[in-house]
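user: can you give me the structure for this one chain? tokens are fine.
assistant: on it. calling the predictor now.
[tool input]
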Amino acid sequence: MTLIGRERDLALVRGHLADPGARIVTIHGPAGSGTSAVLDAAATSAAAWSVDLADAEREAPIWVTVARRLGIGLDGGEDAEARITEVVARRPIALAIDHADAESLRAGLPRLLDRCPTLAVVVASRAPLGLPEERHVRLQPLPVPLPGADLETVAESPSVRLFVQRAQEVDAHFHLDPGTADDVARVCRLVGGLPLAIELAAARVRLLPPAELAARLAADGSDPDLLTSGLGDGTGRRLSLRDALDSTTAALTGGQRALLVCAAGFEGTFPVDALVSLDGRPLGEVLDDLGALVDSRLVEPIAVGEQEPAFDLLPIVRTYVRGAEWADSGRAGDLRRAYVCRTADAAARAAADCRPSIDIERIRVLRRDVVSVLDDLAADPVTAARLAVDAAGVLEGLPERAAVEAVLGRVIATGAVDGLEPALAARVWLWSSALMAETPDAQGSAAEIGARWQRSRDLADELGDSLLVLLCHSVAVAIHPATGDVARFVSSIQQGRALAASIGHAAWLARFEVWSAVLMQTSGRLDDAIDLALTALRRATRVADAKAVAAATVLLRTARPEPADHPLAVPSLESALELGRTSGDAYIESMILAALAGRELDAGRIPEAAHWCRLRLEDTARRGWTSAAGLSVVHAALIAARSGDAAFAARLLGAVAADEERIVRLLPPRRREAYEALAPHLRAHLGGERYAALVAAGSVESAAGGAALALAWLQRDVPSPASPQASSGSLTPRELEVLALLANGLTNREIADELLLSVKTVMHHSVAIYRKLDVRGRAEATAYAHRHGLVTAR
């Protein structure tokens, strides 16, 4: 195996071998990391005697096999250790041993070293031997490029350099360029930077382009062929990932294997609570075994939430475990379904009551499993409907809501909704309405969206369920961009505020106060709007309702960039955006993106304004909110005018003309003034005849067409601002220590021992590091640490 990216590891091995005090040097790492390649290179440089015991007879004593492989003749009953000692005598010799049984080495190596005081032994093993005078070098997966890295950075990455070298061996015409770099980098990330997997994948470029390789590796089930295809190691043997994983999993305990099967049963990322629930053992036992799986690189901590660690498996590892003969996944599948349904129910109850809950975060982490379980429940419409409505309330802003919408649509289309209990039926109609409003053709279904909403509202009134009625009113606000029903929008805000006040529900009241303030703002009552938004912000802060805090911030920051003197600090729009995304409220997130674009326009920062405008147009296109896109089309027109493209700005004005009254009503005062001044400015600049022709050309565009025009122009003609880089400055001193040790290849257990922490605490630090650096796992964090000089030799 090629030594690209292993230069530092080889230097460490050589340095240890040169140290008279280091009698044993162990090279260890996860399966496929290249321990044999580093051992071979170290043996060559040290003129060592090499012994490979890969195909040795299991029953033969290890030193007998070593002696025979070294060509040392043995009589029938001769002591092999004594014969080796006689040959070695007191010559300074290094002995390199590969594929040896660790227990046999632990038992016999100290005695051999005592008899041969000048002998040094270097061993390739799965783990350190734990012997006196032992030094060990742990190999870790190669650093991988971070998503979005430029071509130069991708090309410098050791994992990519290894891929390119191997690919060029099978296809001399292959080269890294802007068309292949992102896909090659993605392949390296999908196999976790594991050298053997990179070489196996790269060997296929003659038949499959990198984009296809990445797609196959990312797909459900990954690429099973990658497990069994092999590479020659120069000795006539064929190496495959299956062989490497067989070796790694053979060393696991029964509990660790069972836990790995539970982990592989999830379709994607999973929270630690889900793994504990499926395993059934005490938390401490599960965490100990989970730590061993993380150290073996079979499971990887992932940064997805704030409250508890989450984990994932490489797709290729999930495929291997699911196909392993020793993996009995039937019971784990049943437990997974029960856990997902139970957690979704708890999450939905918390969301309906506006309560923060770890279950909401858990079900968002498990969103791929929600879709999988819904598929499993196809023959059980009642249970499927219950899970679908529970998930709909907490998967806001996530693509998996499309699968939930399909289930609810099927329940309605088949008439199964009529056989449901009224409370469940009401939620089916309600969330079906909300999810239809997010589809690309939502405006064409406005009447059906409204009708389904009305069915839910009628049932909620009959049941007298106040929280369900409040939920209906909030959905009416959310579907307004798709339906354009202003009367329902206004009345739902008014009635929702009155109901929340009457039952004393502070969080719901804060949300409806914000929406009431929006109505005041659009009607010109700016001071009243600000006063009510401040009241809502104060109330929402007191009850920790992120959605209301974010929404109030948007209004206050847009209505008056520097709010009047008051005792309550107003968060920044960036903070509000983070809150909106954390809470999963797509409607609020859209509002904040619009506000950020407007703020940058007011400040004259055109590239920054274009950045936020582009993000919002991409978001509205993805959700099908064509009517909501009109606000960003106005922003794009202002950006075009200030960028010197008056002709395109005029065309965009034509695109918004059909819905101008509604769109302008949503603009804050300063932006409304700028918009109203835009047409006279463009007419004077272009001339009346040309201006009129351009507006007429834009007026034939639909709302979706105008948004697409604006988005394409922003992507093509406006330079993006420099992307903010993740910074290690946001890490605490302890997190920097953990990152440095992690990047040096230490396991969680080794980091815990070095820093006098628990393994669970190290896991929490790791996840915090990934989140702050905006990286997905250990491989990307290691790449970051190396690029920023945070790793020191050990």
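assistant: here you go. Strands lie at 24-28, 49-52, 94-98, 120-125, 134-138, 230-232, 238-240, 270-271, 300-302, 310-312. The first strand starts at residue 24 and ends at 28.
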